[in-house]
Sequence to fold (346 residues):
Amino acid sequence: RYRKLSVNLPYICCFENRRMATLDSIREPVAAELSAYEEYLRDALRSPNAYVSSVLNYIFGTRGKGIRPLLVMLSGALHRGTEPIGERSFLAAMLIEMLHTASLVHDDVVDEAYVRRSKPAVNALWRSRTSVLIGDYIFARSFSVGLERGATDIVAFITKSIGQVCEGELTQSQQSDRLEMTREIYLDIIYKKTATLIGASSGSGALAVGASAEEVERMKTFGDHLGIAFQIKDDILDYALSSQTGKPACGDLKERKITLPLLTVLESVSDRERRHLIAKLSDIRRRPQNVDYLRDAVVAGRGLERSAEVMGDYLDRARALLGGYPDSPCRRSLLSLCDYIAEREK
Fold:
């Protein structure tokens, strides 16, 4: 029913006639602080145990783009006044990044995934038992450091996100069994599993330098919107080639996850066609060829373009929250980060 179509994902989500934002240029206003943070991170999580250190060093060497610590530093620099970017900011960045990192290590065990960012996942090189325990170690050690150094306000602020991340993942697992996804449930899932940590990043960045409660809440909301857009872009990129993203193509479909590209198509077709597509998804583990069928349905139904429009709306909301700040390199970097989220190809 659906003929095969090619789709240029970067074209869908890029802006024409404008230079693409890069992470290197976005980092410039806080490059020195990020360099100092890297030293702080390795020192804080150093273990005297050689085996633990070897696993940690591998994890540190295969981290992602560093958007969460970057947000902590940019938000802190935007609000610092006369306050320096110092240990409290480094601590907030460490707690956020290590919470995210540990959750990914655990996710790979749960999902039986053996590739992460085009490299072997921890559970591919060590046993699953080791992966679970090193994730637990990262959780425990990170929050122990936070409490030892007296940053109880930052620890309390960030800890609120842990339960939400777990709840989001559990709800998504439930929906992949039931196949009853709605727009409201989808947005709740991606807020909890992704956006809440990104919101905690920008919010804790302001908190770490003594910003007002109103400013902390504004920056948390900024990060929430940015995080929802980030996850929607991830869901769009799931339909790209693995050679582009470093992840298996259509991994969500293979796990029977209904994300926004497919959801927008399900919302727009007849009840009969919806039931037909859901049946294809339900049987996808027994009939792998259904992956191509559903991908073609999403492309033909403009699910990628429609998802990009929703993503753009959340990015506009994030940009609007920066409107009250005077022009500065940090504000420009935060605006450029919004552009980067839309334009990234992996």
Q: What stands out?
A: The radius of gyration is 20 Å.
